[in-house]
Amino acid sequence: MHDGRPGPRPPRRVPAGAPPLTQLQPPVRRTPPPQRRPWLYGRFLAGLMAFLLVVAGGATAGWFIRQDRTSIDSVKVLAAAGSSVVRVLSTACAGTREGTGVYVGDGLVLTADIAVREPLAAAVVTRDGVIRRANVLGTGPDGVAVLQVVGQLQVPALQIATHEPDAEAGRALLGYTASGNLTGQTVGSIHRPRPLGEVMNAAKLGGPVFDKSNQVIGMVTGDSLAASRIVPAATLRPLAVRNAASVTPNSGGTCTESRGPQSAMTPVLQVAATPLALQAQRTLTNYLTLQNRHDFAGVRKYYTPRLAKALPMDTDRRAHLTTYFFGAVITEITQSAGGVNVRINYVTLFSSDAHGAEGKNCNRLDQRYRLLPSGNALLVDGSSQVTSPVPCDSL
Fold it and tell me: What's the pTM value of the predicted model, to 2 decimals?
């Protein structure tokens, strides 16, 4: 009879071959691991890493200090020294007739001889447009010419370095473009120079080279762009004084027909750039450029038939044998009687014994040109003086 309580459990089955349950397993003795000795290699590696970090940090700091000492910013040099770097122009028998110069005080400007070779007249133009006549005193070593400014030049004199520059230090060249804009470029160091062909044009010959302290440490000279080179400050210093012993006096040019720079002469518009103004500008650009190039046959296609008949080519040629026009500015344009009146100011360089020169060789002219329409163009029909010529050095 079942009373509801669980019955006895069946006996546990023991696997065959198992030891008796009463047999006790001997205790397993665990041997503690040996005590770890100090990791000498790790300490060495950590010390080495710390040492390398210190060395790398010092080297990086030294590199930045070196870079700060040897690098140069041409924009800063241009801002600091640009006012004393002048444009040099000439009407001459030979050479490039244009270049860059540096004012070194006492009325003296140093430039490249190639810019003023065999001159009949020369002038310097400051960055802010002040024009002064200049006499070429002579040429020193390495193709450096010395000019004497006529009148006052109100710009600070630049200092020529008295020490040799750091051979690893960066250098900056300041020079003018053919259109008269002053620019600055880096030219590398003495040990790592930048090829001058990457930055040069004819108008930059004579350009001064500066170090980081804005001192002149050299000048670009040469008989051509391909032969241009930087002469050191040691060559320039003896020339930056009056009556320098190393200067060979200049005897001037003897040719009967001289030229100035041959780049295009585009007048600046100081009037609204209307289609009529742009058309007048194109006509006068062609006229002035061809006159500067002494292409007296080519310029006649920009004359009206009346002017071409009244002004024979030989007469035109004789009147401009040594003339060079620059700095042209159109100040006024009006229309009347089917034509266009254009008032223009410009500067002329010419030989002092040229026709009508009256002993001068640089004048500011204020002219009015009469232009007449012909098809889609305007042709020159004549010109007249608005005011009397003013010598360049009188303003």
Answer: 0.80
